[in-house]
Amino acid sequence: MLAQQLFNGLLLGATFCLVALGFNLVVGAMDRLNFALGETAMLSAVLGALIMTETPVPFLVSFAAATLVGGGVAVAVYYLSFRFVSADFPTASILSSLGCGLVLTAVVTKAFGSHQRTVPDVLSGVRLDLGAFTVSGAQLVILLLATLLTVGLYVFLERTPWGTAIRAVSDDATAAGLLGVPVQRVILLTFALSGVLAGAAGLLTGLAYHSVSPFDGFTTTLTALMIIVVGGLGSVSGGVLAALLIGLIQTLTVAYLSATLRDLIVFVLVGIVLLVRPQGLFGRNAGVLERV
Amino acid sequence: MSSFNEAVILTVGINVLLALGYWIAVSTGKYSFGHTAFMAIGAYTASILTVNFSWPLPVAMVAAGVTAAVAGGLIGWMALRLSLLYLAIITFVFSQLVNLLISQWDYVGGASGMLGMTGTTVPLVVGCVLLAVGYLVLLSRSRLGLAHKAIREDERAAMASGLRITRIAVGAFATSAAVTGVAGALSAHQLMVITPELFGPHQALLIILYCVLGGVEYFWGAAIGAIALSLLPIYFDWLNEWYEIVYGLLFVALMIVRPQGLIGRGGAGGVRLPRLIPRRERESVG
Amino acid sequence: MITTGTAGRVAVGLTVAALALAACGGEGSDSGGGSKTLKIGLVTSSAGPFASNAKTMVAGAEYAVKLLNDAGGVGGVKLELVKVDSQNKPTATATLIPELAAKQKVLAIVGPVDSAGCEVACSAANKLKVPIVSPGAARPGVLQNSRPYGFTIAQPDADNSTPVLAKIIQSRKLKRAAIISDEANATTKAQADLFRKVFGSNGVEIVKSVTFKSGDSSFASQVTSIAAAKPDVLALAAGPDDAGRIAREARSQRQDFTLLGTGSLQSGGAAYVAAGGKDTEGTLAAAQFDPHSETPAAKPLLEAAQTATGQADIPLNFAYAFDAVHMIAKAIEEKGVKAGDTEKGRVAIQEALNAMQNYQGMADATTFKDGIAQRPQLQAVVKDGKFVIDKSAG
């Protein structure tokens, strides 16, 4: 049973990982948090699930649609809550993006009702029995897509000119601008990417949970926030490791203690990390905290 | 007075008290994301005292304020030296912890909550608001008020001027918690039912919104924010199903047009030092 | 020394103007007291997890008022439904009830549909001496603070489900049980306690108890733990959405134990089946409402409602709201309450509701016992994608 639980935890961590990466990108680019990202993930998941149930298209098409929706919504949020909102007031874009999140949730409940939406299974016939634990088809798809996106993002950031530009802006936007990097366009790209990741995370989480609720957004945001604090703000590899760690902790808490303690244990972990190692367990840059 | 007008005054008054209480912490530049913890502590302390020990409500409110102040002092002492994000997360975790403990504590009904409280009256609420306003008027004209402002504008400079910033900030946080606790007690005795759910992240966010919508520079900005946000849903109920969408868009628009809130000066916002009182600022150095 | 820039003054001016306007608007619409109709308040919520249930309730109440008015109203006077929206916020409810009572001068109130909302709304209405009937609040002790003016048509699970669950355990020869519950939620906690009691008194061994948190979690971990204990029945102390997802996770882990729910699961049956799909087939539950009742009073009402709404199964909240409006109308008629006579009328309606015996409506027979409806005890099973009442087990 332990092996199965460890696998469950890993799977949960893999879905957390994507949305946490989305957060991290935005923190890197603007030193600001996009609090509407959880709702972006929720909206993409709802629309993705809708395509899956209402049309006969293969899963990958609905998945692509969900990522596109996520990217589009994130860009819209960028224009509404970041582009034209003064950076002098740290609370302004936080409130504004919270407002966007409120609108997204309300729009979804208006359009599709407040009930949870079922996400149909994929590859329901497939079932791998690996002795100590079994893997269902859906779990296989989740692991595969999450790994693909994470590795893809890493390669994009490290190996392409646009990825280099994103890292340059995240290190020092002013200097990058002086060196001829089109800062505004890079930031726009960062938001779009974060939205794509959030959209993917939303639908994959829906697949793992079998459903998506219009009220998931805030929880998603909160979990992602905890992960990026533990992993270190702005650190990609730290975010991945922290997501897996928190996924494991949550699963094992539920399995061997109680679900009521689940969030609390994560919160306590975050509190300890903040007091003992403020740059995050895996972060290098302690200075970034001062700027947020 | 009809029971409707009475209820409106109670609701608005309690929200103003919450906003004013929060503003005291914000006046030192410290944003808490878990002020509902103090609200819950106040609400439950007062309810236990009035329901189980038949204390009169005003006395129970004092006890609620004191308990909340002690909790606020402790948390402030632990967390206030840290930066914005740390403080935000630690206060949030604290509020979740309080919530969890209450929902596991059978003496106060656990997750189903307590009921049977009653007795919040208009004079009581108005009296509390007037007391808080009186304190804040005195505070903004005192050296302590200036010290708050100095810490908010530039902590290092304030420390260099010889202010004991930790002590002042913790004091402000405890006072803020006390006012919030009293508001929680009043709210519990108005609603007649309290459950841990009432003191969740949603309510915490509302308190912050009151303050930030009105603007954090002057305390009456926070009060106006609370009044506006409490009256909107009551008198604009014809918006009905579109309410949340309109509400969200209002915030988006406001933050583009006036990121400093309804009340407050524009320009470089919190970064620039105020020019109002340069001479007195000098005095506090010596 | 308070000074603001021009922009600040403009903002203050605008705020004050807006507030003044709002206040005037409020005063202007204050003239609702003029009494051409019999007013009934309806507390709904367009936000939060019970928004769908609230919508169903509104449909039921509106349908009831339409039927009554088409038939000439009550004693020749038309009914008017005054809808207010609490947005699922208790603090909003605290002003909405006084608004209905003092500004709109309603004779009685229907709603809210959920227990948490009812606790606040019913206490407030009771304090203002306005009769209030909730078509769905079933948490134990929900009316503790709201008597004699508070009523609920839904009976708490503890009283309604216990005998039915005992019967299911005996007929299925269940021996090993697992319970899954949300400990931080008052309603599901009460359901778990009910299951423990029923299992204990019927000789069923509880081999595993696991917990979850509503709404946000994956159930993989819980179901893996349950599977390791090899139970032959899993008791679902969970809201319908969560229960549906638990069912899917259990079946996707190839577990074939029986799924068992209380009356609440059947009342949220549509949501349960929607969330759980075909994996919910065969789920057993206690029930207090039969959407295809054969009783002479309920059958024509249900059939007419089916034609009017186009729904094959009338939801519980629809029928309960429908009956709530009719009970209030019956009380008004019995006592001859006049539209303008608000205060005396409310007392009369309260007395009539408390005295109402064996009311026959869309949801079969209802009798209030200390404000809580005593409902039929039925057994339900999920068959072909919906809960059906197992009449043979009656």
TrEMBL record, chain A:
GO terms for cellular component: plasma membrane. Belongs to the binding-protein-dependent transport system permease family. LivHM subfamily. GO terms for biological process: amino acid transport. It comes from Actinomadura syzygii. It is found in: Cell membrane. Its main location: membrane. It is a multi-pass membrane protein. Pfam families: BPD_transp_2. The chain crosses the membrane at residues 6-26, 59-80, 92-112, 132-157, 186-210, 222-247, 254-276. The keyword Iron does not apply. The keyword Zinc does not apply. One of its GO terms (molecular function) is transmembrane transporter activity. Keywords: Amino-acid transport, Cell membrane, Membrane, Transmembrane, Transmembrane helix, Transport. InterPro entries: ABC_transp_permease (IPR001851), BCAA_transport_permease (IPR052157). Signal peptide: none annotated. This is Branched-chain amino acid ABC transporter permease.
From TrEMBL, chain B:
The chain crosses the membrane at residues 6-26, 59-77, 84-102, 122-144, 165-186, 218-236, 242-257. It comes from Actinomadura syzygii. It comes from the Bacteria. Coiled coil: none annotated. It is found in: Cell membrane. It is a multi-pass membrane protein. This is Branched-chain amino acid ABC transporter permease. The keyword Oxidoreductase does not apply. Signal peptide: none annotated. One of its GO terms (molecular function) is branched-chain amino acid transmembrane transporter activity. One of its GO terms (cellular component) is plasma membrane. Keywords: Cell membrane, Membrane, Transmembrane, Transmembrane helix. PANTHER family: HIGH-AFFINITY BRANCHED-CHAIN AMINO ACID TRANSPORT SYSTEM PERMEASE (PTHR30482), HIGH-AFFINITY BRANCHED-CHAIN AMINO ACID TRANSPORT SYSTEM PERMEASE PROTEIN LIVM (PTHR30482:SF20).
